Amino acid sequence: MRQRRLVTAALCTAASLGPAVPQIAAAVPSECSHIPSTYRPTLAYGDTAVAVKQAECLSNMWGGQPPKLTPDGVFDSVMLKKIEWIQGCHGLPESGVIDARTWQVLYHPALDCYNPYPA
Length: 119
What we know:
This protein is mostly helical. The protein has a domain at 26-107: PGBD-like superfamily/PGBD (Muramoyl-pentapeptide Carboxypeptidase, domain 1), CATH 1.10.101.10. It is 39% helix and 0% strand. The protein contains four helices and no strands. The chain has helices spanning 2-17, 50-59, 77-89, 100-107.
């Protein structure tokens, strides 16, 4: 009986605290509509495409220190650095390749990142 009360108390406490995950931004701005949100090709340094333009636009939703990118559709070294930083903020491998998991965080970015942006 006592063990059941402890479990119940622990579950109630956990439920009241909520999940321990970063807060997620609510919506993608309308200016990032270069491609359908369901089209998520793998992109890497050197690629040029309208999908790169979408990724650049979505990466600009991050506030703070990261530079704002000009959505020009060119995956250059500045974008590579920013994508690696965004991946690190979400605990993803910092590969610089925009894969399915990276697209997911571009569309649903954490509001805060405690990793300093590289100089």
